[in-house]
Structure formats: C-alpha cells, structure tokens
Amino acid sequence: MKDKVYVIDTSGFISQVDFRDGTTITVPAVVDEIMDSTSRLRFDLLKDAGLRVELPDKACRELVRSAAISTGDASVLSVTDLDILAKALEMKSGSGVILVTDDYAIQNVAANLGIEYKTAATQGIRKKVLWELKCTGCGNVVKSGIECPICGSGVRRRRVKH
Ligand SMILES: [Zn+2]
User: Fold this and answer.
1) Which of 38, 103, 122, 147 has its CA 20 to 30 A from that of 128?
2) Which residue in 52, 49, 50, 17 sits closest to 31, CA to CA?
3) Contact (Cβ atoms closer than 8 angstroms) between residue 60 and residue 94
4) Is residue 112 domain-shared with residue 143, that is, in the same domain?
C-alpha cells in the first residue's frame, strides 16, 4: 500500500485540515512565508509530529516551470509556488501525494501535472491577505513574473505587513 503524503503550501498552515493520516512535507520557502502566530503555532505542532522541510529536486522544478508556461500560470507563480509544486511532483512517483493549497494558479498547474490537490478552504482568510513579489537579490518589489526585471534574480511572494 502506498503511503499518503501531504505537501503543504503556506495556506495549508492557516487551515484546520487534519494531516494525521499521512506524512507531511513542505519546502523552506514556505516556512519563510509563515508569519502570523496561528500558522506558526500550527507549523511547530506539525514539526513536532514529524513534518519534513526539504528543498525540491532541481529536475522537477524545471518540469514544473515548463508546465506553468504551457498553462499560462508562469507569470503569477512565485519561486515558493514553483518549489512547492516541484516537491509535490517529486513525491508523486513513490506515494499518493496530495498538495494542500488555496492558490488557484498552483492548483491549475498541479492538475496539469496530474498531481492531486486539496483546498485548505481558507477563502475567508485569504481575501484579507495582501501579497507582494519581492526580488531575492536586490529587494525590488516586482509587479508580476518570476524574475526581477532589474537584476534577474528570482522573486519571492511575501505577505505585506499592515
Ligand atoms: Zn532584483
């Protein structure tokens, strides 16, 4: 029997989804995005219960990038989004993977890659969250895309503090 693996996006830490029937995995970039105390607490609880924080496989990242370009989602996916999708794709080969995310672009690319996903059902919360794309190199705030138009570094989606 295949093990169930939950690959958890930032929205998955806001939710009350029960992950106890499987292995939980996320990527370092998602951990960096978790800022509010509720999500932090939930992260700590999952970490104690065995949550794995791992970088995705590079080859899987390239496959995800290609898929995102073909679905037209590449411009709205951040480096974090690509990482979480790549991790889900990587885990898919050996187990029954479920990607937990409320992001429609991520869901769209996941569907394109044959990755099963589950919404964290946090729409009410999601509407209040403001995001910005910030260059990981020079700190420039980028309107859209996955690369900084100034220095060419990757961009990362961040919650705007207010
Ligand atoms: Zn830059």
Assistant:
1) 147
2) 52
3) no
4) no
**Ligand 1 centroid to 33 CA: how many Å?**
19
Q: Which token pair is 42?
A: 């939930």
pTM for the model stands at 0.72
How many residues are given for the chain? 162
* Pair (92, 145) in one structural domain: no
Q: How far away, in angstroms, is 158 Cα from ligand 1 center? A: 15
Residue segments in the chain with a per-residue pLDDT below the cut of 70:
1-2, 122-130, 161-162
Amino acid at 33: E
> In angstroms, what is the span from residue 155 Cα to ligand 1's centroid?
8
Cα dihedral 124/91/39/47 (nearest 10)? 160
Give the per-residue pLDDT at 2: 52
Q: pLDDT tens digit string along 36-71?
A: 898 999 999 999 999 999 999 999 999 999 999 988
Residues 92 and 135 in one domain: no
Question: Is residue 142 located within the same domain as residue 89?
Answer: no
Q: What is the pLDDT of residue 161?
A: 57
Q: Compute the distance between CA of residue 96 and CA of residue 145 in angstroms, rounded to an integer.
A: 31
What one-character DSSP code corresponds to residue 73?
A: -
